[in-house]
Specification:
This protein has a four-stranded parallel sheet, with helices on both faces. Strands 5-6 form a two-stranded antiparallel ribbon. It has a single domain, classed as Rossmann fold, CATH 3.40.50.280. Helix content is about 30%, strand content about 15%. It starts with a strand and ends with a strand. The chain is an alpha/beta fold.
Length: about 160
């Protein structure tokens, strides 16, 4: 399979961990994986078996929706998957705006995989270029009224 991983060109200190794990999943299956941050007409115009587009914060709505619609312009690429925080919290709005049914919450099939740190090949400057990322827990026991974590990760899980 040919897999394209897209992060919209919003400012981010940290690399897209979900896409890094999806990359590991596909590479373990022998699939060809390409990552790009932003929009690229040459990539859009190629035929991909699947395109994954991550989303971050809800205030990045405009750039995120523009990125999704940009990749939708190649009608041959019908298998576009959208997930992440924005897509989960604004699930109905993303579906209404793009016609894509977003993935809600964690992608359990890849959540425990090791992130693919070679995905970026030094082309992108993330805060963690010389570090690795991990979780000590998932979910939260506090359920603060202003926080989205209980909605995104409803079950508290201690990994240690």
């Amino acid at each position: 399979m040919r897999v394209l991983l897209i992060e919209p060109a919003y400012k981010a200190k940290y690399p897209p961990l979900g896409l890094m794990k999806i990359s590991t999943f596909h590479k373990q299956r022998g699939d060809a994986v390409v990552f790009y941050k932003g929009t690229n007409a040459a990539l859009r115009n190629q035929i991909w078996d699947v395109i994954y587009i991550t989303t971050m914060f809800t205030y990045q709505w405009n750039i995120t929706i523009r990125t999704i619609k940009f990749y939708q312009r190649n009608k041959a690429n019908r298998n576009i998957k959208v997930g992440g925080i924005l897509a989960s919290l604004l699930y109905n709005e993303v579906k209404r705006e793009t016609g894509i049914t977003p993935h809600f919450g964690l992608y359990k099939k890849v959540d425990r995989l090791t992130p693919d740190y070679k995905l970026f090949d030094g082309r992108y400057d993330y805060f963690t270029n010389n570090a690795s990322i991990g979780y000590m827990t998932k979910g939260c026991i506090n359920h603060c009224p202003f926080c989205a974590v209980p909605e995104l990760e409803p079950e508290y899980v201690s990994f240690i």
